Amino acid sequence: MQVFGLVGNPVGHSLSPPMHEAAYAARDIDARYVTFEPTPADLPAAIEGARALGVSGLNVTVPYKERVHDLVAVDDLAARIGAVNTVDLSGDEPTGHNTDAAGARRALEAQGEADLDGADAVVVGAGGAGRAVAHGLADAGATVAIANRTEERAVDLASDVAHATGHGLDALHDLLADAAILVNATSVGMEEDETPVPAAALHADLVVLDAVYAPLETRLLRDAATAGATTVDGAWMLLYQGAEAFELWTGMAAPVAAMDDALRTHLRDDR
Question: Which helix (H) or strand (E) segment is 268 a member of?
Fold first, then answer.
């Protein structure tokens, strides 16, 4: 039996276990997905211990994505993002990857039917999720404008992303006027019925992805739908980043439908 898992603190809220175990069942893989909550001081030992015990792969969540980046050999994308959310333990040394970037890209392409190559995209947020999304969209050929409450952070991030620019939130009206893609990579909308984007800035030619998945229908997505835009909820990004990890670990195509059904079932049950 193979063992995969999630490292974070806390991890009790995670939807990864049912999503990944649904994938193992669908592909007839003898595997289990478990969670680990090491303390910050024990994190290096936890990674080495997992490898010594024969764990095949790990996902990494807050607050450890940046710290694990410094504990494993990272691929080019994870190095540019500065964070790791997936570790492959099957080789001679642990290797770190970031599937959040591909999660956003695949969600936009599959669910929003967005053509990213040559598109003008706006990413709201310059934190960890914003970094992953901005790099992922730029790598797919989009021109990326990053808007953040603190403009300096957006400018700093843009300096690391190909053909990107950084702005304050007050620039959103102008940035979105000709944009085809909008991604909210902040947590705004998770705790309260709020949005980081003025409704008047939205239009029908946009594909709007909100990385927030609880609730699934955020105020931003409601406003976008009212404006006639195509909307993509945050569960799709969560799903596709998990699918990328599954494919990295197993070499098999992810059973996306089975994973999506398990994910959304648990999201409904948690409401």
Answer: helix 256-270
